[in-house]
Amino acid sequence: MSDPQAVMDEPPPHPMEGEVLLKIEGLNKSFKQGGNELHVLQNLSMRVAGGEIVALVGPSGSGKSTLMQIAGLLDAPTSGQILINAQATEKMNDAARTKLRLSTIGFIYQFHHLLPEFTALENVSLPQIIAGKSKKEAREKAASLLESLGLGERLTHRPGKLSGGEQQRVAIARALANDPMLLFADEPTGNLDTKTSEEVFEVLLEQVRQRGIGALIATHNMDLAEQMDRVLELKAGRIVPF
User: Fold this and answer.
1) Is 52:232 a contact under the CB 8 Å cutoff?
2) Residues 182, 20 contacting (CB under 8 angstroms)
């Protein structure tokens, strides 16, 4: 059997549009709660292809965030299979999972989680530097991304000097900084007012479609969900017909 770490020595090939980038089969996730076992995800299977934007909806507590964390290799399932760009991940060690995550996946959360002491430019440069780019390359890429998101005049502003919508645009730029194949967004506009939410969501969809990447976006906003290519509903830990 080949070493899962060795699999990651070469950069992943750029996918063709329509190619399956995320494949989940028979996923289960359980937690111990007191003396009981809580089944959060149960025998869940799904796919996301390149160039496809998929909405994930469901009531609070249905397991959306847990699914996003597991699909993004930030948490491990109790059982089941997760393939990212055709690579099985369940037997990868932590270093291989981290490397795959850095090179393949971008994350956006409801709360932007920007580093408050860093400027917008620095926040978007940092994940690139962690992934191995030079500081100069990272700053040039960060500036280009931020300018494409309408933040060309905000490069040197720290998060505290940006509006909520501007902060989330910086978070979008940060998620796209390493040219991911997959984007996971967990309630990316849930902390914004209606007008700003619509503006930020339009920017997000535009960026995803231009890049042809696959996206899984969890949202409670059905108006936003219906603008995506497909809608998956999560209920009681299972994907059900929508």
Assistant:
1) no
2) no
Would you give the DSSP letter of residue 15? P
Per-residue model confidence as pLDDT tens digits over 180-206: 999 999 888 777 778 888 888 888 888
Q: What is the DSSP secondary structure assignment for residue 74, as one 8-state letter?
A: S
Contacts of 37 (CB under 8 A, 6+ apart): 30, 31
Helix (DSSP H) and strand (DSSP E) numbers for the chain: 8, 10
**171's tokens:** 């978070």
Residue 2: how many other CB atoms lie within 10 Å: 6
Segments of the chain assigned E as strands:
20-33, 36-49, 53-57, 79-84, 87-88, 105-109, 182-186, 214-218, 230-235, 238-240
| pLDDT tens column, 121-169 | 999 999 999 888 999 999 999 999 999 888 999 999 999 999 988 998 8
Full 3-state SS string of 53-116: EEEEECCCCCCHHHHHHHHCCCCCCCEEEEEECCEECCCCCHHHHHHHHHHHEEEEECCCCCCC
Q: Taking the mean position of all CA atoms in its chain, how far away is CA 62? A: 19
Q: Distance between CA 5 and CA 121 in Å, rounded?
A: 32
Give the full edge-to-edge strand order of the sheet including 20-33. 36-49, 20-33, 79-84, 87-88
CATH architecture of 19-240: 3-Layer(aba) Sandwich (3.40)
Report the first-to-last Cα separation within the chain, whole angstroms: 40
